[in-house]
Description:
CATH class of the largest domain: Alpha Beta
Order of helices and strands: EEEHEEEHEHEHHHHHHH
Distance between the termini: 46 Å
Shape: globular
Amino acid sequence: MTAEPVWHPSPNVGDRRGGVAPDMIVLHYTAMKSAEAACERLCDPAAQVSAHYVVAEDGRAWQLVREEHRAWHAGAGGWGPVRDVNSHSIGIEIANTGAAPFPDLQMTVVENLLRGIMARWQITPDRIVGHSDTAPGRKIDPGPRFDWRRLALQGLSIWPSAAEAPGDFLHDARRFGYDVEAAGQDVVLNAFRMRFRPWAEGSLEDEDRRLMHDLANRWPVAQAALA
């Protein structure tokens, strides 16, 4: 059993533009020396950044922004047709440098947060993304050490199966949600692999094409925009 997040309000908050309700969750790592240091920065008006939640390595958690409000965690980027990711999402900052595994207790707290948020806002597993997905090339968090498959096994994210035949990688990446025009193939490949094939190296392979084809066929978030 984990405690409820401690309310620790940030002044860096606003209204969701256009009156939209959150339909995405974006996961980050803090890349700072401690969760407390991350909270301090996310509550500093001069920093002009914030997130809805911060989760420490030992399972402690803070809520900085109410879920119905717009936090400033995603910045420039997009996912499918969405360009104002902040207005559409709830941001969770996970204390980690990016070089270390995420402790089991910390992951459990993140999972519990995800379950609650998904239930409250009817957010589906395919709408749980990393900052590296919405801003490929600019951001790499939550990084290759984050266990996305663990989340997928609990219905808290998605995981691909290899399609029978490889597809067109960039076309499928666009259908899945990546901003291909802004990023380009190498950047998108790196973002994709960081989440779904963190052990892979080198140039584009048929396995990348097969997995991306499956993601695009099952979760085509940009399909309407491409019609």
